[in-house]
From TrEMBL:
<dbReference type="InterPro" id="IPR005517">
    <property type="entry name" value="Transl_elong_EFG/EF2_IV"/>
</dbReference>
<dbReference type="InterPro" id="IPR041095">
    <property type="entry name" value="EFG_II"/>
</dbReference>
<dbReference type="Pfam" id="PF03144">
    <property type="entry name" value="GTP_EFTU_D2"/>
</dbReference>
<dbReference type="InterPro" id="IPR000795">
    <property type="entry name" value="T_Tr_GTP-bd_dom"/>
</dbReference>
<dbReference type="Pfam" id="PF14492">
    <property type="entry name" value="EFG_III"/>
</dbReference>
<dbReference type="Pfam" id="PF00679">
    <property type="entry name" value="EFG_C"/>
</dbReference>
<dbReference type="InterPro" id="IPR005225">
    <property type="entry name" value="Small_GTP-bd"/>
</dbReference>
<dbReference type="GO" id="GO:0003746">
    <property type="term" value="F:translation elongation factor activity"/>
</dbReference>
<dbReference type="GO" id="GO:0005525">
    <property type="term" value="F:GTP binding"/>
</dbReference>
<dbReference type="GO" id="GO:0032790">
    <property type="term" value="P:ribosome disassembly"/>
</dbReference>
<dbReference type="Pfam" id="PF00009">
    <property type="entry name" value="GTP_EFTU"/>
</dbReference>
<dbReference type="InterPro" id="IPR000640">
    <property type="entry name" value="EFG_V-like"/>
</dbReference>
<dbReference type="InterPro" id="IPR020568">
    <property type="entry name" value="Ribosomal_Su5_D2-typ_SF"/>
</dbReference>
<dbReference type="InterPro" id="IPR009000">
    <property type="entry name" value="Transl_B-barrel_sf"/>
</dbReference>
<dbReference type="GO" id="GO:0003924">
    <property type="term" value="F:GTPase activity"/>
</dbReference>
<dbReference type="InterPro" id="IPR035647">
    <property type="entry name" value="EFG_III/V"/>
</dbReference>
<dbReference type="InterPro" id="IPR009022">
    <property type="entry name" value="EFG_III"/>
</dbReference>
């Protein structure tokens, strides 16, 4: 079980809309603790969707329903909360701010048409949030900013707005500013008084209200006019003409929807200040799905398909953006419909990308969707259909994995995938008993299918089951889901697969002779073993003269040697990079056999190993770290303390440097965690196995 799902009759209003123009999909983005979940909760309560706002601390919010979220006191997954406001359905998509859950954020960005950046009035703006802002900017996603937690004891909303302007760049301007008990509208020149909570008492327009904020008002109006398509407006404004409020608002809304103007709204979720302005802003200025170009699509065989649009009568194309596994209802797939209309009575076609690195095959299947639901956190409310542009949840669509396309069997489609982050923290899990092992493997594959940021590795050499996670908080969520699924699991240190090799040439004599009673065994061989350069593997040379070892038994010797190389000659580490030459031997006309010569070959190798010196080889990875220049010194110093060798650095985009290095894999086990703390989460890295290298004298063999 992951999320405690709950299909209740109807805790909210009817949530099926038939017109994409009436839908807004808004993803909440921002650092952990900035107040996204609390804001969502306040908006749900303000709109009457829930009777009263729950609290993150008490674990009673709609969005943080997962037991791991309650325990960690922060969101650990994406959550959808639809709010009805002014005849529109706003799908609020709450995402976790903590870096481990960036996969959930990516899914939220995919499902949304606009982003609300939530930053705390007391915290400044962090680099990870700036990076998401820039990413949204690069695809023209409309964005607005909420400066949250106005009641924080260190809140300084004006400083925070200035920090947002410095961090996010042009077009970021406040639409409202805080005053005691509420806000003042810079364009509307009205006062929004929240002293009695939501909804605010709104005053009539009054120029005196904004006197105090004349500079901010002028800057805002100039900012809006600069974005206007009416080029005469600036001249008229500079000529002293008062531009009408409705003209300014219309231009403002167009510029927001275009992604070139980003209003800032100060908000306090606890007192309600700003909630009406956020809801109105979303409905009026954020675009409907009709204005968002859906992702590219092909037929499942890869042939091009006409571009999609948010047309309820178009071909069905929906995408599974998230999968949760629930102990009561099974698999719950959160779906964004990009085109067409999903109806429970119609069969659907599910096709996937076959993310082979996660151990999945390409898949294609026809399925039946018994019920459609509108999710409200963990609550599933049945709906009769879901139109293009809207979000819904499907249950029991067995073959659907995150990233899959749901289309119609008559016109099967495949939506081009979105980019998912690579999990880089290995965690070795062990089942406490035999029966736990079975439960574990059953649950693991389901978990991996639902979470694209989780990778499963069964390492045959070390015998370990390794889960590659995004970080420790992610690992905790995964483990708690496994335990909740009934498997008693623990963790153990991750083992590294080592190799060994011969440090110097040596000879070995293998004699396997047993001739007392019954069928005898007779095989003798002499071998020479020489080290080869790294990466050469294994070579076998036959130099037997005069049939000392009959030719049919030469492959037997090789087989025996190979088997021993794989089993290892010291501590069980496979032997590589050697040439084994069969120089001589003896056979018996009756008692020699394939098996006897295999045994003799293995014995000879063991004897040669005893006469040589065995060097341990450890895996070395090529690592690429991309980081802001200011952290370069720290990261280089850290790499060298990990026995890393820097191969070079190059300047990347936007003040970033890419460091190329080779680092022993044993030193990278916790690099995902350490690099994040060294660079405040601003660096990323990739790693790839390069080769094996001798371990330095005195290095501790990782267990
Ligand atoms: N007093 C006060 N506290 C708030 C407000 N907004 C959020 N908080 C508190 O701040 C903490 C973090 O809020 P969350 O809503 O969990 O923040 P988040 O952005 O969802 O954090 P992540 O889920 O980790 O990304 C919680 O303890 C909230 O109760 C606010 O407006 N006023
Ligand atoms: Mg949250």
């Amino acid at each position: 079980m992951a999320d405690k799902q709950n299909r209740s009759a109807d805790p909210g209003a009817a949530v099926a809309v038939d017109d994409p123009a009436k839908v807004r999909n808004v993803v909440l983005v921002g650092p952990s603790g900035s107040g996204k979940t609390t804001l969502t909760e306040a908006l749900l309560a303000a709109s009457g969707t829930v009777p009263r706002a729950g609290s993150v601390v008490e674990g009673t919010t709609v969005c943080d329903h997962d037991p791991a979220a309650v325990r960690q006191q922060r969101s650990v997954g994406l959550s959808v909360a639809p709010v009805l406001h002014a005849g529109h359905k706003i799908n609020l998509i709450d995402t976790p701010g903590y870096a481990d859950f960036v996969g959930e954020l990516r899914a939220g960005l995919r499902a949304a048409d606009a982003a609300l950046f939530v930053v705390c009035a007391a915290e400044g703006v962090d680099a990870a949030t700036i990076a998401v802002w820039e990413e949204c900017a690069s695809v023209g996603m409309p964005r607005a900013v909420v400066v949250s937690r106005l009641d924080h004891h260190r809140a300084d909303p004006l400083a925070e707005i200035a920090a947002c302007q410095a961090a996010f760049g042009a077009g970021v301007l406040p639409l409202y500013l805080p005053v005691p008990d509420g806000l003042v509208g810079l364009v509307t020149q009205r006062r929004y008084d929240y002293s009695a909570g939501y909804p605010p008492r709104v005053s009539d327009p009054d120029p005196a209200v904004s006197d105090e904020f004349a500079d901010a008002r002028n800057e805002l109006i100039e900012g809006i006019i600069a974005e206007s398509e009416d080029e005469t407006l600036m001249d008229r404004y500079l000529g002293g003409e008062e531009i009408a409020e409705d003209v300014l608002i219309a231009d403002l809304e167009t510029a927001v929807a275009r992604g070139s103007f980003h209003p800032v709204i100060p908000v306090c979720a606890t007192s309600g200040v700003g909630l009406a302005e956020v809801l109105d802003g979303i409905v009026r200025a954020f675009p409907s799905p009709l204005e968002h170009t859906p992702p590219g699509v092909t037929s499942p065989d890869g042939t091009e398909h006409a571009a999609l649009s948010a047309d309820p009568a178009g071909p069905l194309a929906a995408e599974v953006v998230r999968t949760a596994v629930d102990s009561y209802v099974g698999r719950v797939s959160l779906v964004r419909v990009f085109s067409g209309t999903l109806r429970p009575e119609n069969p659907v076609h599910v096709s996937g990308h076959g993310l082979t690195e996660r151990g999945h095959e390409d898949h294609d299947a026809d399925e039946r969707v018994a019920h459609l639901y509108s999710p409200l956190g963990a609550n599933l409310r049945e709906v009769p259909f879901c139109v293009a542009g809207d979000l819904c949840a499907l249950t029991k669509v067995g073959s659907a994995e995150t990233g899959d396309t749901v289309s119609s069997p008559e016109d099967p489609l495949l939506i081009k995938p979105w980019r998912m982050p690579e999990p880089l923290l290995p965690v070795a899990v062990v089942a406490k008993s035999r029966s736990d092992e079975d439960t574990l493997s059953r649950n693991l594959s389901r978990l991996v299918a639902g979470d694209p940021t989780l990778r499963l590795e069964r390492n045959a050499e070390t015998g370990q089951l390794v889960l590659w996670c995004m970080g420790e908080a992610h690992a905790e969520v995964v483990l708690s889901r496994l335990r909740a699924g009934g498997a008693d699991v623990g963790t153990e240190p991750v083992r590294i697969s080592l190799r060994s090799t011969f440090a110097k040439p040596a000879r070995g004599h293998g004699r396997h002779v047993k001739q007392s009673g019954g069928h005898g065994q007779f095989a003798v061989c002499d071998i020479e073993v020489e080290p080869l350069p790294r990466g050469s593997g294994f070579e076998f040379v036959d130099k037997v003269v005069g049939g000392a070892v009959p030719h049919q038994f030469i492959p037997s010797v090789e087989k025996g040697v190979r088997a021993q190389l794989e089993r290892g000659v010291q501590d069980g580490y496979p032997v590589v990079d050697v040439r084994v030459t069969l120089a001589d031997g003896k056979a018996h006309s009756v008692d020699s056999s394939d098996a006897a010569f295999q045994t003799a070959g293995a014995l000879a190798l063991r004897e040669a190993a005893a006469a040589s010196r065995i060097t341990l080889l450890e895996p070395l990875d090529t690592v690429e770290v991309s980081l802001p220049d200011e952290h370069l010194g720290t990261v280089l110093g850290d790499l060298s303390s990990r026995r890393g060798r820097v191969l070079g650095t190059e300047s990347g985009e936007g003040g970033h440097t890419v460091v190329h290095a080779e680092v022993p894999a044993a030193e990278l086990l916790r690099y995902a965690v350490d690099l994040r703390s060294l660079t405040s989460g601003t660096a990323t890295f990739t790693r790839r196995h390069a080769r094996f290298e001798p371990m330095p004298e005195g290095a501790v063999v990782p267990t």
